From TrEMBL:
Pfam families: CS (PF04969). This is CS domain-containing protein. PROSITE patterns: CS (PS51203). InterPro entries: CS_dom, HSP20-like_chaperone, NudC_fam. PANTHER family: NUCLEAR MOVEMENT PROTEIN NUDC (PTHR12356), NUDC DOMAIN-CONTAINING PROTEIN 2 (PTHR12356:SF18). Residues 75-167 form the CS domain.
Amino acid sequence: MSPLLSLTLGISGFLMSKPIDYSKFDNIDSGDESDHAADLSPAPATAAAATVSQVARGTTKKHPTIPDRYIFSHNNQPIYEWEQSLEEVTIYITAPPLPSQSPASYIIINIDANHLQVGLKGHDRFFIDETTFDKVKTKESSWYLDDGIITIILAKAFRGQTWEGVLNGANAKANNNESNTVIQESVDPFVKQEMQRTMMLERFQEENPGFDFRDATFNGEVPNPRTFMGGVGYNH
């Protein structure tokens, strides 16, 4: 295991692994090492979307120590960690070095119904500028910075829907010429089944609070937690 992945810190009652120091926070796929996230200015300008010639295809794998947490990596480098519940998807990003005074004010995060942008003021591109895996309820979504970790909470528009990743990639289905940078996540069938299992057990626990489903198993393929047996309830 990478030493970077072995680092953990306490934040808001849970463990957060610290995957990488983003010296190039605003450009995950550029080979130009001259971009420095610490070179910040409090300019009010909004970061613009990147236009480069690579497709950032990554993989999603289970976290080695935190249950039901996943790590999205690109070129074998962890980019962010994430987890989900019936209600929401939570993303954890290690922030670059920021000024000690009002550090959150230097961060730009835009959450739309089908799109997520993460960047820094004064920079000309976003670190993340992609479509989300599924639709988001923007008014119920939020983000905060705590102890060097950017936490983004995306409220699911469809309660109980299993997200196989956080991002689809803005042009993932548009064409094959790879003229724009997109972030595309992929999971193997086993990981997808693990995600479905976690969601189903959360639903069972919610609907049957007197039982303990932590060690429950499924015979065969795990059913869809949103549609199984009449569908998940929306009155919670």
